[in-house]
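Human: Not sure, check this?
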Amino acid sequence: MNGSKKLRITGWVLSLLISLFLIFASASGKFTEWEGKAEMFAKMGWSEEVMVKIGIVEVAIAVLFLIPRTAFVAAILLAAYLGGATATHVRAGEAFFFPIIIGVVAWIALGLRQPDVFRLAFGSNTSYDADRGHN
């Protein structure tokens, strides 16, 4: 197995782990009843009704992230979603670094799956660019 294939597999594994986390660890709590749920959401400034809608968005983004054709747009949506999560945790006085880490890992995972993402983000001197006189 060559290095490129290993990197793509690593990207897919990371992508799957992120999506599973978003669906089962994060969104599922927005759909189920548990003790202290209303108080926790109120502390964050959200009603339970709104959190269900946020959970639906979270699941949709997680699924779209696993579909190669929609993964790039899903990564953009995920970054926006996680920005909102970060702001919510900051406002509530809670630790806010976890959504940032998830976002960074998601973009790394996508870049490993689709190397054009890294080329787009960081630029490159590919033969395609060289043939056209671009640096």
User: Anything to note?
Assistant: The first helix runs from residue 3 to 31. The chain has a mean pLDDT of 92. The chain has one domain: 3-131.
